[in-house]
Structures are given as C-alpha cells and as structure tokens.
TrEMBL record:
Stretches for region Disordered: 1-34
Protein name, per record: CBS domain-containing protein
Family: Belongs to the chloride channel (TC 2.A.49) family.
Listed Gene3D superfamilies: CBS-domain, Clc chloride channel
Molecular function in Gene Ontology: voltage-gated chloride channel activity
Transmembrane segments: 78-99, 174-198, 261-286, 298-318, 388-412, 433-458, 464-484
GO cellular component terms attached to this protein's record: chloride channel complex; plant-type vacuole membrane
Annotated CBS domain residues: 521-574
Major site of localization recorded for this protein: membrane
CDD domains, sorted: CBS_pair_voltage-gated_CLC_euk_bac (cd04591)
Pfam families attached to this UniProt entry: Voltage_CLC
Keywords carried by this UniProt record: CBS domain, Chloride, Chloride channel, Ion channel, Ion transport, Membrane, Repeat, Transmembrane, Transmembrane helix, Transport, Voltage-gated channel
Organism of this sequence: Ensete ventricosum
Length: 679
C-alpha cells in the first residue's frame, strides 16, 4: 500500500506516545493530511527529478529519501519513438536512393533551374512524383510537367488531347502553374501561391522594388493613422487601414511598438543568412558521404534519425511541469493538444507539447493569441535552438524528400515568441503576434521572398491588420540578409552545379557588345544538307540547335533561313526521309511526321545520335531541313549591348539567340553567331 505524501511510514508504525500534548497535536495534523487531496497540498514537490538531499539510509523516525526504482516504461516509450522515426526516415531515404534520387530535398531549386532553361534528368518523371509526395511545390510542378509532355507513355498514362502542350513554352507555363498550385494546396494560400511562383521561381526584380515602395507607404499610413486617430487631424483622421471594416477582432499596436518589430527584422536577417551559410556547409560535407554509395546514405540517415530522436525525447525532461489551471485540461494528450509527458494529472510539459506535435499544430500553438503564460522562456529558448540546429541537420544530411518552408516558419515562430518574452512589459504586442512576425522575418532572411510571404502570412492568419508589420519585418530582414549572402535556393543551385541566369545585368556588361563574347567555331547547316555532315556535326558538338543558311543555288547571296533543333534532326535521321540529289523536298515533308515524333520529349529524356543507324550509302544522301526549321528565331545585331541582350534572353525565356552581322555586304555564313548557354 502506498504511503501518502508528507507522512513517514516509520512514524505510522510507531505506538502513540502521551509524553506531551505537542506531540499529539502533530500526530493529529499528520492524520488530517492523509485525508487531503494530494494535488491541493501546497508543500508537496511533485517533480520526478527532485534532488536527493538526504541520506540514502532509512532510519526509524526519519523522513525517507526521495529515491525510486528505474521506470522501464520510459525506455519503452523512447525505443518506440526512436524506432518509428528510424523506420520512417530510413524508408524515405531508401526509396529516394533506389527509385529516384531527383526527389531528394525540397525540389524548388530544380524547379527554379528548369524555369530558367535547364532541363535536369528525371526532375519531373513519374517516379519522382511518386517518391516525392511532399513538398507540394515540386509535386505540383511534376504534375504540370507530365501534363505538358502528354502523360507517360512508359506507364501507359497518356491522353491524345495533351499532345497540344508538348512544347517547351506550354510545358514551362504548366510547371509554373503546378508549382503555384502546390503552394496553394500546402498552405491554403491561393494568392500567395501565385505570387510565390512569380517571385521565387521567376525572380522579377520589379516585384521587389514595388514591394519596397508599398511597404514604406503602409508603414507611413499606419503611423499617420495612429496619430490622427486621437482626433488631431480633424475630418482627415477618420478610417483606418481597412476601409470597410466589418470584423470585431482587432490587433492593438501603435507607433511605439515599431522598435521591437524593427529589432525582430534585423535578427531575422542575421539568423537567416547564418542559416544559409550553415546549410550549405552541411550539404557540401554530407554530399561527399552520399557520393560513396547508397549504403552510406542509409547509414547517415540512420545516424541522424537516432540523434534527432535522442534530442527530441531527452530535452523535455529539462522542462518542469506546469499546472493547467488556466486552460482546459481535456486537450492534454489529445492530437494537437498539450502533452502530459510524465507529469502529474492536471499538469502539462510545455516543451514536450512543442516537440511531440506536428509542425502545423506547433505553429498554431506559437501563433495563438492570449497564450502569453502557456510557455516558459527557457522552453521557448530550447525549442528555438533545437529547431534551428535540427532543421539544418535533417535537411542538409538526409537525402530524402524534405521541404524548407514550414520548418523555417516554425523556427521563426520560436525566436519571434522568444523576442516577445524578452521585451516583457516594454511591448504592447501579444507573444503570438511576435511569433507570426518572427516567421515572416526568418522566411525573409533565408528565402528572401517578400511579396509572396507577406500574402501567405496574411492568408494563414486571416488578419489583414498585420499587413504593415509583416511588410516591415520582411523589408528589413531581406535587406539585412542580402548584405551577407544570396537566398538559400540560389546557394543550393550553385552547390548542385545547375546553371542559372540572373534577372539583372552586371555593370561591366554595358561596356561590351554581343560580338565580344561569342565563341567559335560556328556550326551551321545548309538548307539542303548532306546526311553525313549532319551525323558528323551531331556527334562532335553538344549544341541543341543550329543555324540554317541558304546558299546558292537556293539563294544568290547567303541568307539566314532559321534555326533547327537537334531533336528534329535526330527524328529526320530515324525516319530516313532522305533525298538522292541535292533538291528541295515536297511541301508535305513535314506532314509525314506525327506530333509524337517531333514533339517535346519527357523531362531529361533525349535521343542520342549514337543510337541512330545510318549506312554508308545513306551518308551520301541529302536531307531537306527547310520544313523542320524555325524560320523566325530571335536575332540581334552584333553591335547590340551585352546587357540588353542578356535582359532580352532572360525576360523572353529564350534558349537560343542568333547574332547576325550589321552589314549586309559581309557573308552571313561567315559572320552569323550562335549563342546557346544551356545546350
């Protein structure tokens, strides 16, 4: 039978003594304590980890030392927790390593590179889509790409009407729409998804400049509204940020609250840039391990899983139990609620409540209004450090489908709430509001997105009154972080070796012309070309398109006819529609090819000239390239500024740009230049 707290077992066994009235009063008081509920006794220390300050020898008439036997249930819970994490992470790493390595990471750098003109192998394949499942940006882009390539013929998932989208331009647009749809589905932010695709994937500098202007206007307007709201502006002080305000809930903040918000933006910029540096270093080191084979990838994932499990399970033991007198205890140990984690009844562990919930539920707790007393400063500090370090470790080390957006939101919410706690009574803002601003500032410091993050945060919180503060922290955090390094996606692009053209020209480019940077030797085809020459050029070059020049007898002076793609040349060689003499083919030559034969192949899938069999007799024949040549390619004169040519190339989404001589008296065949940076 258990002995009630506060009553010594040895004292209960001893006979009652009548030596003095004081002793009898003490005994009566002890008996009265037995009837009292334990949780209402104010002197009882319910913490399991109370320090042992007495001797471990139990003597008659003395208090027992607070020792206890080992609790094997705790170890069972840990092994179940660690084993589940290990199994899930190992499975995710295994299917990524053995099925589709392109599914590793968030996929946003690969999507960004594709929209910039780089088609990496298998980034939008059906296998990648199945393995990916999440994050939704890459998943949506995969779906859009599959629609753009007409489905998958390999797995017999095709549709005839989709063949009209089998071209680079429509496919790029569908990938952009798919990425936007992924953001809308994951974050329930449709407008934010559109802006995310435009800002993060298209990198339009004008969006950032417009955001800077509107942010200044919003903050200034809010300051003037606060001043005029006191009746100092007469009739001009009416109204506020919401012209037709029909909501009852308002966010109370004033001009005096801007300094803490500015500080939050500065901290977000510094922490975000440091996050990017550490992430790239971890990715670089661990890529050396991953390159050694699939077994090393699995071992590395297992080691990281065990390390993370130990941290998440061990750190909550440092947090004391808190009574839930001010909240409904019925949510304890329920999904999304607070966690008891070895605490007495009617108590909860605030740090365990942050660790043993989904990211969405944890962020919801940190964003909650009127929850200033739910968390201790030490618990929020530990949660921030753990999410910061473990976020870098998990994404940088493990080659599995992981996203960055939600983990960064969680880390930002932690330190945002921590800043709110540090401000104490000096700030009028709620700790939940500080958490929202912290997420915005950390997203701005790492990803450097402003417009899309601002709209996403407003759609997530459903509070338009946060607009000035969110814009302010985003503006400051991005500006501070840009002084140290680029955004995280650009850094990952460089680490993976994917080429990327920025949307702005460097100052030195204004002093150069396009003729200063072209490189040779130039490879061209005649309008009617010998089959042997076509095969030789395809084997000795890696270009994906070639200029077509008409020369006598088809044109008296040499004339640039257009541009022919490598894929179309390979289709011609496979079809073997050759001519015995150097003559023009009939007008129906292109009609002999189906849409699938000349259409855009799937992502990363390209025909090889080595797979085409051409006999020695066929090498001496001819092929008419006119019906398969783009007769209206983008061209610029050789004296055009390099900066202007780069902007044209980038803004129009070109892959090939032809440079022609300024003087018509110079032979076009000797002066035509060809630019194909991604071929």
């Amino acid at each position: 039978m258990a002995t009630p707290a506060g009553v010594d077992e040895q004292e209960l066994l001893q006979p009652r003594s009548s030596s003095s009235s004081e002793e009898e009063e003490v005994m009566e008081q002890q008996r009265g304590n037995i009837k009292e509920p334990i949780l209402e006794h104010s002197t009882i220390d319910l913490r399991r980890h109370a320090a042992n300050t007495t001797s471990q020898v139990a003597s008659v008439g003395s208090n027992l030392c607070p020792i206890e036997s080992l609790d094997y249930e705790h170890w069972t819970a840990f092994w179940v927790f660690a084993g589940s994490n290990l199994a899930l992470l190992t499975f995710a790493t295994a299917i990524t390593a053995f099925v589709s390595t392109a599914a590793g990471g968030s996929g946003i750098p690969e999507v960004k590179a594709y929209l910039n003109g780089v088609d990496a192998p298998d980034i939008f394949s059906l296998r990648t889509l199945v393995v990916k499942a999440d994050p939704m940006v890459h998943t949506g882009a995969c779906i859009g790409a599959m629609v753009g390539q007409g489905g998958s013929r390999k797995y017999r998932m095709t549709c005839r009407w989709l063949r009209y989208f089998k071209n680079d331009r429509d496919r790029r647009d569908l990938v952009t729409c798919g990425a936007a749809a992924g953001v809308a589905a994951a974050l329930r932010a449709p407008v934010g998804g559109v802006l995310f695709a435009l800002e993060s994937l298209s990198s339009c500098a004008l969006i950032w400049r417009a955001f800077f202007t509107t942010a200044v206007v919003a903050v200034t307007l809010r300051a003037l509204t606060d001043i005029c709201g006191r009746g100092n502006c007469g009739l001009y002080g009416k109204g506020g940020l919401i012209t037709y305000d029909v909501t009852a809930d308002t966010v109370a903040y004033r001009l005096a609250d801007l300094p803490p918000v500015i500080l939050l933006g500065v901290i977000g910029g510094v922490l975000g840039s440091l996050y990017n540096v550490l992430m790239v270093k971890v990715l670089h080191v661990c890529s050396l391990v991953n390159e050694r084979g699939r077994a090393h990838r699995l071992l590395l994932a297992a080691a990281v899983s065990i390390c993370i499990s130990c941290c998440l399970f061990g750190l909550p033991w440092l947090a004391p139990c808190r009574p839930c007198s001010n909240k409904d205890c019925s949510t304890i140990d329920h999904p999304g609620g607070f966690e008891n984690f070895q605490c007495p009844p009617e108590h909860y562990n605030d740090l365990a409540s942050l660790f043993f919930n989904t990211n969405d539920d944890t962020i919801r707790k940190l964003y909650g209004r009127g929850t200033n007393d739910d968390f201790q400063t030490s618990s929020i500090m530990v949660a921030f450090g753990a999410s910061y370090v473990l976020g870098i470790l998990s994404y940088g080390v493990v080659a599995a489908p992981f996203g960055l957006f939600v983990p960064i939101m969680l880390t930002g919410a932690s330190y945002g709430r921590l800043v709110g706690m540090a401000m104490g009574s000096d700030a009028n803002l709620d700790h939940g509001l500080f958490a929202v601003l912290g997420s915005a500032s950390f997203l701005g410091g790492t990803m450097r997105m402003t417009v899309s993050v601002c709209v996403i945060m407003l759609e997530l919180t459903n509070d338009l009154l946060l607009l000035p503060l969110v814009m302010l922290v985003l503006l400051i955090s991005k500006t501070v972080a840009d002084a140290f390094n680029p955004n995280i996606y650009d850094l990952i692009l460089r680490l993976k070796g994917l080429p990327y053209i920025e949307d702005h020209a460097e100052p030195y480019m204004r002093q150069l012309t396009v003729s200063d940077v072209v490189a040779g030797p130039l490879r061209t085809f005649n309008g009617v070309e010998k089959v042997g020459n076509v095969v030789h050029i395809l084997k000795t070059t890696g270009h994906h398109a070639f200029p077509v020049i008409d020369e006598p007898p088809f044109s008296s002076p040499p004339v640039l006819y257009g541009l022919v793609l490598r894929a179309h040349l390979l289709s011609l060689l496979k079809k073997k529609r050759f001519l015995l003499t150097r003559s023009v083919a009939g007008s129906d030559a292109a009609g002999q090819f189906g849409a699938d034969e000349l259409g855009k192949r799937g992502s990363g899938k390209h025909d090889r000239v080595e797979d085409v069999e051409v006999s020695a007799e066929e090498m001496e024949m001819f092929v008419d390239l006119h019906p398969f040549t783009n007769s209206s390619p983008y061209t610029v004169v050789e004296t055009m500024s390099l900066a202007k040519a780069l902007i044209l190339f980038r803004e129009m989404g070109l892959r090939h740009l032809l440079i022609v001589p300024k003087s018509s008296s110079v032979s076009a065949s000797s002066r035509t230049r060809f630019s194909s940076p991604f071929s």
